[in-house]
Structure to design on (112 residues):
């Protein structure tokens, strides 16, 4: 798809945005609290869409995609403030899944 950004580009875009403010990044514990808050909002949207608890007519319309975007923004802020390269972090976790956890689940071709 055209217009897709790399994780490095996302991290740079967020850094450019935050860099225009004197306050800069929040402290890690503040960002962890924000990430937890955003996770709660995501959970609420998921239960409204995929669970038994439907929204009240008076509740604001939000989307799962928007809530995931909020979480991603805060996660990128947290990574940037700690000089963590999320592409490298992703590569390490994928290596872990492809080695340590390679036989943990049943592969599709094994069940067909």
């Amino acid at each position: 798809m055209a217009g897709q950004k790399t994780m490095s580009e996302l991290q740079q875009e967020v850094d450019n945005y935050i860099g225009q403010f004197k306050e800069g990044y929040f402290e890690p514990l503040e960002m962890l609290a924000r990430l937890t808050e955003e996770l709660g909002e995501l959970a609420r949207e998921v239960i409204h869409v995929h669970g038994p608890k439907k929204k009240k007519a008076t509740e604001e319309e939000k989307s799962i995609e928007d809530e995931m975007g909020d979480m991603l923004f805060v996660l990128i802020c947290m990574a940037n403030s700690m000089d963590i390269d999320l592409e490298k972090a992703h590569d390490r976790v994928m290596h872990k899944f492809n080695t340590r956890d390679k036989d943990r689940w049943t592969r599709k071709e094994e069940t067909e």
Q: What stands out?
A: The radius of gyration is 18 Å. The helical segments are 7-18, 28-50, 64-81, 86-99, 108-111. The chain has a mean pLDDT of 91. The first helix runs from residue 7 to 18.
